[in-house]
Design brief:
The protein has 461 residues and is of the alpha+beta class. It is 47% helix and 10% strand. Bound molecules: adenosine-5'-triphosphate and magnesium ion.
């Protein structure tokens, strides 16, 4: 496939009036039938109404590389209101960045109006409400419309700025994106530092696409990344949470994690873990790495993955450490764990706003790490019926894979699940009779010893 790309792309470039290289049908490997029908129709309707319209972004990139596109985006000269008027089932969404969602029976096609970079087109006062930047240069609103060429220059990466016109099967390239696909390079468009300052999420996108595509990051793009990494703190916690899911749940989590560490980005995603990251061979790094290996594998096998499991793994080393401190202060293990879990989640939420629907199962997975050790008698049966049992069992295996010695706990539960009813009962009884601990009177309450620690902070939702 790449040979084919090389052959076509190194020759016969035609420039059009907008300053793009236009690659004709014989110069690339795309064809209109590769384009999703709904996206094709959207482009067709817009063009017939007299607007410019292209299929753009990741889908063009992925098709050129022989990958299956996640979604098909359309870019057009039509304003959001003009797009909306052309499609009955459509609505304008977003404030910071207005786009139109056109609803089809199978999916939604996102239609974006060409954006302009205000600095290049002069500071028009009418643009004031449309494009807003913080003092540090971060874009908080970007609704100044412009030409297709301007639109290309405000996209993030050259490989993401290719415009495909299915009507004549041509690719319009303003930033040498095809050459970069051919050379397997991730290159940010424009001045790297400025572009990262405008939107620090681009730092994460560089790492994500380099990992996904197996491309090298251009040296000029990579240079300011470490320096700008701290800007990630300005990204809103809900947006940063969404972006972390794309980093870790797209099937290339391990490679992405390595790049995040190399470019000092990871430390702004789970800051609480930083003191434990220095030891690259240490258990915390091994655990995160192994969690991502397992997640990548599950995605390859089309198995379900949940953000709760990933975040449970990312935060487990710090939960464990804090919990053991609370135990040393005389708290019972369940109370110490619950208090540590509450504290650690509360401290993570201002960074990546993990929704409550994930923090609840995270806490259950952690709690079960304790409960699943005590499995004698009737406990094993009850535990195996817990809705979070499977995730907690996988988590035990993960901890063992990462090098923790849990005294054969994972194996025991594996055997238990494979056993029949009678075998299960005798396994559980054996645990009970092996439990040689001297009988102690049960503590009535799991209340903490009076120390000075505060009660767990509430989670937000
Ligand atoms: P995929 O959908 O496979 O994750 P994609 O490249 O399509 O990859 P999207 O997030 O769907 O990524 O964005 C669509 C396009 O919008 C990108 O290809 C890029 O051109 C542009 N884009 C997205 N996010 C940014 C950003 N933060 N800054 C500049 N341009 C962006
Ligand atoms: Mg996309």
């Amino acid at each position: 496939m790449l040979e084919r790309i090389s052959k076509f792309f190194k020759t016969d470039k035609n420039s059009n009036s907008a300053g793009a290289y236009v690659y004709g049908p014989s110069e690339h490997c795309l064809s209109p039938d590769m384009i999703n029908r709904d996206a094709y129709n959207v482009v067709d309707v817009l063009q017939k109404a007299g607007f410019e319209a292209y299929v753009v972004g990741g889908c063009v990139r992925d098709l050129l590389l022989g990958l299956k596109p996640k979604d098909f985006d359309v870019a057009t000269s039509a304003k959001p209101s003009e797009v909306k008027a052309l499609f009955r089932r459509s609505r304008i969404i977003g404030r910071r960045f207005q786009i139109v969602h056109v609803q089809f029976s199978r999916e939604i096609i996102e239609v974006t109006t060409f954006r302009s970079n205000e600095k290049q087109s002069g500071s028009k006062s009418s643009n004031k409400n449309q494009r807003q930047q913080t003092d540090s240069g971060m874009l908080t609103r970007d609704n100044v419309f412009g030409s297709v060429e301007e639109d290309a220059s405000r996209r993030d990466l050259t490989v993401n700025a290719l415009y495909y016109d299915p009507s004549d099967n041509s690719i319009h390239d303003f930033t040498n994106g095809l050459d970069d696909i051919d050379d397997r390079i991730i290159r940010i468009i424009g001045d790297p530092s400025t572009r990262f300052r405008e939107d620090p999420v681009r730092l994460l996108r560089v790492a994500r696409f380099a990992a996904k595509l197996g491309f090298d990051i251009e040296a000029r793009t990579a240079k300011p990344m470490k320096h700008r990494a701290g800007d990630l703190q300005q990204v809103s916690p809900p947006r940063l949470f969404d972006e972390t899911l794309k980093l870790f749940m797209s099937g290339n989590g391990l490679d992405t994690f390595k790049l995040l560490l190399d470019h000092k980005l990871f430390e702004h995603i789970v800051p609480q873990l930083n003191p434990m990251l220095n030891d690259k061979q240490g258990e915390p790094v091994k655990l995160v790495r192994q969690a991502l290996v397992n997640t990548d594998k599950r995605i390859r096998n089309k198995q379900r993955v949940t953000p709760a499991f990933i975040y449970a793994a990312l935060l487990w080393p710090v939960v464990q450490r804090l919990s053991s401190n609370y135990e040393k202060n005389g708290n019972s293990p369940p109370y110490a764990l619950s208090k540590a879990a509450g504290d650690i989640i509360a401290a993570q939420i201002p960074v990546t706003a993990i929704p409550k629907r994930f923090t609840i199962p995270m806490r259950e997975i952690w709690d079960l790490q304790l409960h699943m050790k005590r499995r004698g008698g009737n406990r094993a049966k009850r535990l195996a019926e817990h809705p979070r049992f499977r995730a907690a069992y996988d988590f035990i295996l993960l901890r063992e894979q990462a090098g923790e010695d849990l005294k054969g706990l994972g194996d025991w539960w594996t055997k238990y699940q494979d056993a029949n009813e009678d075998q299960r009962q005798s396994m559980a009884e054996e645990i009970l009779s092996n439990d040689k601990r001297p009988k102690r009177r049960r503590r009535r309450r799991n209340s903490p010893k009076p120390d000075n620690s505060s009660s767990p902070k509430p989670e937000n939702g």
